[in-house]
Recover the amino acids of this structure.
């Protein structure tokens, strides 16, 4: 199948491998995860699209690091671009660096207004002040690194 896609259909190997990778992950999850609540997230827009198209059991969130540095991927350059991408592909929400939300809590209202789920990651999720701001403003459970 992989050789046919590359040789006969002239598909880029990246997309063939991405599809295979996504199928493998979903197969493992289906086989070994029964009642545990999980969410799927990736910083790769293509992986998020495939995850959303191939299954509806688990929520899919797009990772966006635009608050920390300027990514080269257009869909991850700003919070607005990330939300637009997530809505277009019917993703459930975004995973964002915690720093922008701790320093500018009004961004939370913007995200909440779109109806999307929002989770954060980063060093400030481990700092008491960051957790308090995120907890009070987001009204969600903060998952710290272990």
């Amino acid at each position: 199948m992989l050789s046919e896609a590359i040789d006969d259909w002239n598909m880029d190997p990246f997309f063939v491998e991405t599809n295979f990778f996504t199928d493998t992950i979903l197969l493992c999850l289906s086989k070994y995860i029964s009642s545990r609540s999980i969410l799927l997230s990736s910083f790769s827009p293509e992986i998020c699209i495939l995850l959303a198209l191939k299954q509806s059991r688990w929520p899919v969130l797009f990772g966006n690091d635009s608050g920390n540095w300027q990514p080269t991927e257009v869909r991850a350059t700003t919070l607005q671009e990330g939300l637009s991408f997530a809505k277009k592909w019917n993703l459930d929400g975004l995973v964002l660096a915690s720093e922008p939300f701790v320093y500018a809590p009004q961004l939370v209202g913007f995200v909440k207004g779109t109806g999307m789920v929002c989770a954060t990651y980063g060093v400030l999720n481990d700092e008491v002040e960051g957790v308090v701001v995120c907890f009070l403003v987001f009204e969600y459970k903060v998952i710290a690194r272990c």
Observations:
- The domain at 37-138 is CATH 3.20.20.190 (TIM Barrel).
- The chain has a mean pLDDT of 78.
- The longest strand covers residues 60-64.
